[in-house]
Amino acid sequence: MGIKQDCPNILLNIHFHKKCCLLLHAIHLFLKFFCKFVSLTITIKSMKKILILMVGILISVQTYSQWNWPIITFDDSTYLNYIIIDTISNTNNIWQVGAPDKINFTQAYSQPNAMVTDTNQPYPANDTSIFYIRYVTPENIWGSGWVQTALVFRYKIDTDEDFDFGKIEFSPDNGQLWIDYSNDTIYNNCYYLTSDPVFTGTSVSWSQFGVYNEPYSFNINDGDTVWYRFTFISDGIQNQNDGWMIDDIYLEDIYEGVEESINRTISLNIYPNPVKNQSVFILFENITCFDNIELMCYNVYGLMMYKERVDRHQSESRVSTEGWPPGIYMAIISSNGTAIGKRKFVVE
Fold first, then answer.
1. Residue 334 has pLDDT above 60, yes or no
2. So what's the architecture of 65-260 in CATH?
């Protein structure tokens, strides 16, 4: 098998349960040490029971998750069905899977194969070549909750800097919406990039790129189809550069339970607070990732005093408190019926 064991380190500290694996391994080593040097007799069966108990404790104190991490190495048929080379828009598409044999691209990251803009020849002028990764998120064994996705890969680049380049786009909804990581200004608060998403110039050694898409941003559920589009573009000047080489593509899914997803909140600020016989201003930030947003104000008895539909690009709302009885009120902002932020304020 061509699966590499050195998984990318940029995402390893993101998720609690991956840390649990290391913790359980440490517990296992401690028990072995304890048995050896304290001369206690603990059977393997007893040790397994202890480890199972620890797993139960860890799961009980943390909201649940399930993760999936397929790796495309190009060295065998494993997950190659996720790759689609677009020969419709370009019948001479230069993306090829194989062993690189070029001036600067001499070997894959995990040998022998990689995805290369032609495994033997320099890339041509006036070329736009695309390949896709099409991925259907597996079943969530927990039954409900959003899916957060991540993409990580190794690459080398050898191009005429700023004139010939590669870029990556993401579709969370089976190709209806495409987000260009290189120039997006609408959803840029909804994902985290580990480095510049424009691939140009010359790299001496292998580099690593990763993008982490926030779970609550795109409402991806198990069974949904997500796409990544890799595009290489060259201008009208021919050169002898090798282009773009990609290897060991990691596709990660984390299934978050409903309880964990609800805890994704935003901050609300309210002024003046307390307020008396005037309007109150409710400020909110980074709501561009949410849909169907509403702002509501309730009194201590649960009576709704105010309701407003909020645009995702809005940053504040003005709420008149004229005629409201003195007391404590709660401002709540919600997305798709789920509270994502709240704050108390006082009317005098």
1. yes
2. Sandwich (2.60)
